Every structure is written in structure tokens, then in C-alpha cells.
Amino acid sequence: MKRASGILLPVASLPSKYGIGCFSKEAYAFIDKLVEAGQSYWQILPLSPTSYGDSPYQSFSSFAGNPYFIDPDALVEEGLLTQEECEEFDFGSNPVQIDYEKQYRQRFRLLRLAYGRSRIAENPEFSRFAAENADWLEDYALFMAVKERFDGAAWNEWAEDIRKRWSFAMDYYRRECYFDIEFYKYLQFVFFGQWMKLKQYANAKGIRIIGDIPIYVAFDSSDAWANPEMFQFDGEYLPTAVAGCPPDSFSATGQLWGNPLYRWEYHRQSGYRWWRRRMEHCFILYDVVRIDHFRGFDEYYSIPYGDETAEFGHWEKGPGMELFRALRAGLGEKEIIAEDLGFLTESVERLLEDSGYPGMKVLEFAFDPREKSDYLPHTYDKNCVVYTGTHDNETLVQWYKGLDEESRAFAEEYMDNAATPDKEKYWDFVRMAMMSVADTCVIPLQDYLGLDKEARINKPSTLGGNWLWRMTEEMLTDEVIKKIYRLTEISARLA
Q1: Are 285 and 207 in contact (CB under 8 A)?
Q2: Is 465 left (phi over 0), alpha (psi -120 to 50) or beta?
Q3: What is the pLDDT of residues 201-252, one digit of tens each?
Q4: Based on the number of CB atoms within 10 Å of its own CB, is 424 exposed (0-12), middle (13-18) or buried (19 or more)?
Q5: Domain spans of the chain?
Q6: Which residues are marked as active site?
Q7: Whole-model pTM?
Q8: CA-CA distance, 24 to 46, in Å (whole number)?
Q9: Measured between alpha carbons, how far is 95 from 43 in angstroms, rounded to an integer?
């Protein structure tokens, strides 16, 4: 990756009159602002449909797109909706916060109106899309339609015949849910059409998209339901073990994510076919892909299913370089960012080095005077991506306010900025990241704007109050853009 910079902003956090960011004129305007600011990258979070908890990292599918991101105004232009109809629905009135309950209850009603008028079955482009994506789309659309029939219940709570995909049950539900299945296929057709148009606009302007994928899939997903052989399931298709992280200084009981673990031997015997297909799909959607929890490819933490904490798990060996060699053989050289945060063993560091992928550096992890830190800028090599923070971190302003006296003194000494007023210190951290030797620097928009705790995206291992923040059009002013551009220029990162 060449020396360049970008901004991290989830699509959901874009301004929009429909209660959540989407592929609307505001998204195109944001790309224009990235260009004005001299940026090369727009980093986003997973585009997948969100499930319980609203996390884009717990999705009903690792292939499908989130229908919330479909722009209703584009459907108005197609003559499938009227502006009056769009305005009838209540998507929430808070311009800086997403109301997911209202999105769930209102968005699909609006989209069903468009589907009902679309005559989509007669559209040859739709037929082509459905055929080209049949390997995941058929299962996903059926999964969502059946889930509706069971009032949204997780698939392990469905009737045994469809839970275990008995052939007569599959045929029955395909007939009974025909139009619901077609509706969910239609949503994906519209989603991918709108997203690819937006991505092409970005690419034409010199902006490349950094996508983000979790290593694991959700248990309540079409991936797990349709492919139980790929996961560590028992005879009743329940997990025997689940994913997480062990206890550490941040959590005395560890992190219990609950995702099903892969049966890596099956993937190995298949030549990692599913992973090759998944990554092939990702590189249609994105120019660069960040893979979350890279450590899990070297060793993964296995927690007995049913445990209430992560305290009693153990480490097991992952696929290592064998997987990445298979990806290279199938896809060629692709740009991947390895999320290698946290405690790293020698074997993980060796895997990262062997892969050649850039790892991540986060400044908020750097300033603990009690221990040696690999996140201080003087320790970087060029092949890495530096962030002030990620979607899981506090904003810079919130983080700096919460530093203990010793850490704050160390940060001031390291940067020689004791004279800088506290309310302006966030900019010193941004500047330090941009001036580092790291080839790539990505700054969350909230940190450029100097926003406090109200703009935090996610607090890991918590439910509720996450994934809510949205920017308004007024926040990213011409003054801020000019300031970003100048910093990008003097740090030799101009697009």
C-alpha cells in the first residue's frame, strides 16, 4: 500500500432523512468531501444485515447486504415509491442517533411497497443477478422467509424438518414462501445495484473502499443453517464450542462472543472453497479488506457451549498460512489488512510476517508508562495501518479525558505538547498518526471533529447503546476539510 490516508465512517453514520445512513446523495457528498480533504480511502464497517443487538459483526449472512442502506429516493426516481409515501413512515427524529426498532418496523414495510410494484420477475437483470449469486442467495432468501414464518426465532428453534433441511420441508417452504423469498432476493438486487454504483463513483474520484469482515459468522445466520458441516456442531446442529477471548486486564471473565467455531479440517479438505468464495465476494464489494481477529487464523479460543463466561476456554490451532496460500492461489494478490490487536504470540507475529499483510497500530493503546508498547509511533515499520482509534474504542477526546495522571503526563512528555490546551490535544494525536512512517493512516471522523463520548460507536461486550451515532451535514465544515487537507499534504499522504 502506498503512503496515503483515509477516514473511518460507517455507512450507517452518514446523514440521512431516513433515520440511518444509506446509499443516498449524502453518501456521494461525503465522497466528494473525502476528495476535497485529499484522502485516498473511505473505511467502513461490514455492510451485512444486522440481527439482534444491531451489530454489523453479528449478521444473518456473511454475503448479503443490509436493506437499511437502500436509498428510498432512488426507488422514488424509479417510480416504485412516491415521496409522500416515504414521508409517511416514522424512521426516528434524532439526527445524531439511529432508532433501530423504527428501522425494523418501518423500513421493510416501505420496501415491500416498492417490491410489489417492481414486476421484478420480468427483469432480466434481476434474473442474471439471482443466477450469478445463487450459491448464497437461495439459502439466504429462504432463511429470511422461514424466519418470518417462525416470528423471527433463531433457526435452532424452528421445526426439526426445516431446521435440519429435510428435502420435503425445503420444497414445502420454497412453495409456501415463494413471494417472501423473491422479496428478499429483490432487496439484495437493489442493495448491490445501489452499492456498486456508489463504489464506482468513489473509485472514479480516486477514493478506494476499505471493507471490514469478521472472522466468524453468527450462529443465527444462513451461513450456519445452510452449511452445518463447516462448523463444530453436534448431531442436533448445536455448537459444541463457541468463540471468544480469554480473561485479561480489560475483562476478568474474558469475552464470550458466542459465534460457532469452524471445523477447520473440513475446510482444509475442501481446499478452503467457502473461504475463497467469501473473499472473492468481498473483493467485488471492496478494494481493500480488513479481516477482524486475525489471531484466530493462528490459534482460536474455544469455549464450551453453554458457559456463561469465557473463563474456561482453551486455545486450539487454526489453519495458519495454508488458508492464505489457498486464497492467493484462487484469487491472486489482494490487499488485506490484518486486525492483529491485543496480545500476540510469536506464532501470530510469524503468521503476520509470512502473510505480508499490514497489521494495525492504535494510538489509544500506546500511552501506558508502566509497560513497553508496540503502538508508540517510533516502533512502527512502514507496512502497517495506524489509527487513532477504531469503532471499538472511545473517541480521542473521551479517551484523553479518562487517562490517569501518569499516562497523561507520559503522553505529554512523548509529544512535547504540555502547552497545548486540553480541548485541542486530540489534534496532536491525529497529527502524530499522520506524521508516522506507517504507509497508511486512517482516522475516525469523530476524532477529526473532536467529538466526545456521545459519538462512540461501540463498547465491546455490551448490549444496548451501541452502533447508534450519526453525523450531521453541518459537522464536516469547509474549515475542517481544509485543515485535514493541509495535514495530509505536509505528511506526504495526498491522494
Answers
A1: no
A2: left
A3: 999 999 999 999 999 999 999 999 999 999 999 999 999 999 999 988 767 8
A4: exposed
A5: 227-357
A6: 292, 339, 392
A7: 0.96
A8: 18
A9: 22
